[in-house]
Amino acid sequence: MEDLKRSRVTIIAVSAIVLFFLTNYLARFLFGLTGVLVSVVIAALIAAYISWSVARILKRVPTGDERARVLWSYGGFLGALFLAWAAYVGLSSGLDTGSVIFLLSHYLPYPALAHLMLSDRVVGRFVGEPG
Question: Chain centroid to CA 98: how far?
């Protein structure tokens, strides 16, 4: 039973990555929205989805291992994606300090907000626990 819940938590992380691609495609290419604020809004929506989904699947606050699995899967994949993008930018036009700050300002909201939304207090609200 525990393996089933572990795989479901991994599926949540994978679905959050798919949501990352879909929402960014919709916002940036179809609607023409740009900027760090768009990244923060998308990151907040995906983080809320992750928190709600984990609470719904587990029906309790996640353990440290479950929380780490989601965060490392989600944040690690997006980190590798942004690192690949930084390598592409660095090889094509050069990577200066401003470019690194720009990439970090678009990447960091995703794992940071997911971490905040997976806190015991927030997930507990979705589960219905007091606190």
Answer: 23
Exposure letters 35-62 (e unless 16+ CB within 10 A, then b): eeebbbebbbebbebbbbbbbebbeebb
User: What does the block give as tokens for 37?
Assistant: 């604020």
Q: Among candidates 85, 90, 115, which has minimal Cα distance to 103?
A: 85
Question: Of 131, 129, 130, whose CA–CA distance to 58 is shortest?
Answer: 129
Cβ neighbours of 14 (radius 10 Å): 12
Give residue-wise pLDDT tens across range 68-124: 999 999 999 999 999 999 999 899 988 899 989 999 999 999 999 999 999 999 999
Q: How far is CA 3 from CA 10, 17, 38, 76, in A?
A: 11, 21, 36, 21
Residue with tokens 């879909």: 22
57, 60, 90, 109 from 120: Cα distances, Å: 15, 9, 39, 19
CA-nearest of 34, 41, 6, 4 to 20 is 41
The whole-number average pLDDT for the span 5-22 is 91
